[in-house]
Specification:
It is a single chain. The chain is α/β, with parallel strands linked by helices and 243 residues long. The chain folds into 2 domains: 126 residues, Rossmann fold, CATH 3.40.50; 104 residues, OB fold (Dihydrolipoamide Acetyltransferase, E2P) (Beta Barrel). 32% of the residues lie in helices and 31% in strands. The protein has 7 helices and 15 strands. The strands form 4 sheets. It has a 5-stranded parallel β-sheet with strand order 2-1-3-4-5, sandwiched between helices. A 5-stranded antiparallel β-sheet has the order 10-9-8-12-11, with no helix packed on it. Strands 13-14-15 form a 3-stranded antiparallel β-sheet.
Length: 243
């Protein structure tokens, strides 16, 4: 498997050094590079790489801000001068990152991990033919200065907030710049179901279902969250859950 790769870093020498290091990895095909987040976003959207090496601290926009604006996030390996304690402060889960100057051994470990994840995804796509994001997929969430990589299986609820959506996972409820309509089209309906105009829920976290007076249902989830399933959506929900 060959991973199409873009290097995004505002330091030309850093890009050049990383390009040189990656020449020893036949599974990595560097297809382009970018000197800032704006150029990086444009090239990611046009070239659709499998992997990006992304600097965190760049002028005007950080690497985290770039990720929060993408429609689809490729695999990411952060390259940064921050130490591991500063990285932890960003509250990013399942993060691949390399401290500058980059060590060949850590680079090899990061590439191997990304390659394994890419192989798993390719196998899943081949077996299911499914273009949806599934419970094994991770999404990048940024809210202010806080950032996370979150598996969809860990998210309980998406709540509509106009053109934004509130994401409920753990004790966190950040806002993302994605509408509920967009999320409904992108996420596997066997994992998340739109119960009404306001909420889309993780079906695997339902603990109780009761009929209500208007022909719909009331659901309760693992964290105590409860809401009505609209009468319109109740028909689809009944078919899906074989009630």
């Amino acid at each position: 498997m060959t991973l199409k790769t873009i290097i995004i870093d505002d330091e030309r020498l850093a890009r050049k050094e990383l390009f040189k290091l990656l020449s020893d990895f036949p599974e990595i095909e560097v297809i382009d590079e970018a000197a800032d987040a704006f150029e990086g976003k444009e090239k990611i959207e046009s070239l659709k790489p499998d992997l990006i090496f992304l600097d965190i601290k760049m002028p005007q926009k950080t690497g985290f801000e770039l990720l929060s604006e993408l429609e689809h996030t490729p695999h990411v390996i952060f390259t940064t001068a921050f130490d591991k304690y500063a990285i932890q402060a960003f509250e990013v889960n399942a993060l691949f990152y390399l401290l500058k100057p980059i060590e060949t051994e850590r680079l090899a470990t990061a590439v191997a991990r990304v390659k394994l994840e890419a192989q798993k995804e390719a196998s899943l796509e081949k077996n299911t033919g499914n273009y949806y994001l599934t419970e094994k997929d991770q999404v990048f969430v940024k809210d202010g200065e806080r950032c996370w990589f979150v598996k969809l299986s860990e998210i309980r609820v998406f709540e509509s907030a106009g053109n934004y959506s509130k994401v409920f996972f753990g004790k966190n409820t950040p806002l993302i710049l994605k509408s509920l309509n967009y999320l409904e089209e992108r996420i596997d309906p066997k994992l998340f179901f739109r119960i009404n105009r306001k909420y889309m829920i993780n079906l695997k976290m339902i603990t109780k279902i009761e009929p209500n007076f208007n022909g719909g249902y009331i659901i309760e989830m693992t964290d105590g969250f409860s809401s009505d399933i609209s009468r319109r959506q109740a028909v689809k929900f009944k078919e899906m859950m074989s009630l």
